[in-house]
Design brief:
By secondary structure, this protein is an alpha/beta fold. It has two domains: about 110 residues, 3-Layer(aba) Sandwich (Rossmann fold), CATH 3.40.50.2000; about 190 residues, 3-Layer(aba) Sandwich (Rossmann fold), CATH 3.40.50.2000. Helix content is about 40%, strand content about 15%. A six-stranded parallel β-sheet has the order 9-8-7-10-11-12, with helices on both faces. It has a three-stranded parallel β-sheet with strand order 1-5-6. Strands 2-4-3 form a three-stranded antiparallel β-sheet. Strand 10, helix 9 and strand 11 form a beta-alpha-beta unit.
Length: about 350
């Protein structure tokens, strides 16, 4: 806003370009209009046509209005925030007007930290060529959480903040059905008190099938990624997401909702072609989520098909090398944009 208003006629700034990178549109930087004078901006911006939104100064809106280009952390999320009232978080119309200036680039993962070949926190390192060694991590995971190790019983992992936006309400709804299946579930996370209470109760009720650690623990996060067979990520919205990419790298098949970065990084498995890297459901609904879980469990019993899905995911490139190249291209675009 400063470059496009106060300094627009200052020669030194005439060549400056801005790329505004938005991670999560919901966090907007809202302040009372009485604070506008602290910005030093021209008074006519203190209006709904300017940087006010719903009667408050909105820094996010300011960036969206005045940046030369805008990007967010996945193509699908970039489309969702300009077309969905819910995900647009009050700024859908501003973004819709800037459609041609809006881009999506997936975040990269740190492959020095998240790599089963080099992961020092794993009981047993493994590669795509030694994929059977993943079973040793599965065994270690069950021992860590006090569950019985069963090679042919799939373990679902969840590593998440425990909030509705992460789809934990769907997990709660399908929980009794999950526990009727021949599966095990291990959860690591922290968040809403109601979910702490719920998962505490469930770990007592189903102690042979479900275990949880309600807190943050980096070592456990690595062991879950290395030892689980599948990873549940039913987010209501997900600008990018990282755990689905870690899971793919570790041959831990993700079951995700088709939203944001999840839709851009996981390829839904197709039984007919045998292609895909994971499982995906579209409607934000407990029945749709459970149906896709059952489909995954069914495929899990076909070891040849399952290993093919694991290997397809492990071959994916989610390193920063790939994303950085796309950012360089976008920087070049913004510099050549008149």
């Amino acid at each position: 806003a400063y470059l496009k208003t106060i300094y627009k006629d200052v020669e030194q700034f005439s060549e400056f370009k801005t790329l505004f990178t938005v991670h999560n549109l919901a966090y907007q930087g809202k302040f009372p209009t009485s604070k506008f004078k602290n910005t030093g901006l021209l008074e006519d911006l203190n209006s709904a046509k300017g940087i006010q939104q719903n009667g408050k100064i909105n820094f996010m809106k300011s960036g969206l209005l005045y940046a030369d280009l805008i990007n967010t952390v996945s193509n699908t999320y970039a489309n969702e925030i300009r077309t969905s009232n819910e995900l647009g978080a009050g700024l859908k119309d501003v973004l819709a007007k800037r459609k041609k200036d809006l881009y999506g680039i997936i975040n990269g993962i740190d492959t020095k930290v998240w790599n089963p070949e080099k992961d020092k926190l794993l009981p047993k390192k493994y590669t795509i060529k030694t994929i059977e060694a993943k079973q040793l991590n599965k065994k270690a995971l069950t021992e860590k959480f006090g569950l019985e190790y069963k090679e042919d019983v799939p373990i679902f992992g969840i590593i998440s903040r425990l909030y509705d936006s992460k789809g934990i309400d769907l997990v709660q709804k399908i929980f009794p059905d999950l526990m009727k299946m021949d599966v095990q579930l291990i959860l690591l996370g922290t968040g809403d008190r109601k979910y702490h209470t719920f998962f505490d109760k469930m770990s007592m009720k189903y102690k042979n099938k479900f275990a949880s650690y309600l807190g943050f623990n980096d070592e456990l996060a690595h062991i879950i990624e290395g030892g689980a067979d599948m990873f549940l990520m039913p987010s209501k919205y997900e600008p990018c997401g990282l755990n689905q990419m870690y899971s793919l790298k570790y041959g831990t098949i993700p079951i995700v909702r088709e939203t944001g970065g999840l839709a851009d990084t996981v390829i839904r498995y197709d039984e007919k072609t045998g292609e895909g890297t994971g499982f995906m459901f579209k409607k934000y609904d407990a029945a749709a989520f459970l149906k896709e879980i059952k489909r995954a469990v069914n495929v899990f019993s076909d070891k040849k098909a399952w290993v093919k899905i694991m290997k397809a995911g492990m071959k994916s490139d989610f390193s920063w090398n790939s994303s950085a190249k796309k950012y360089i291209e976008l920087y070049k675009t913004v510099l050549s944009n008149n």
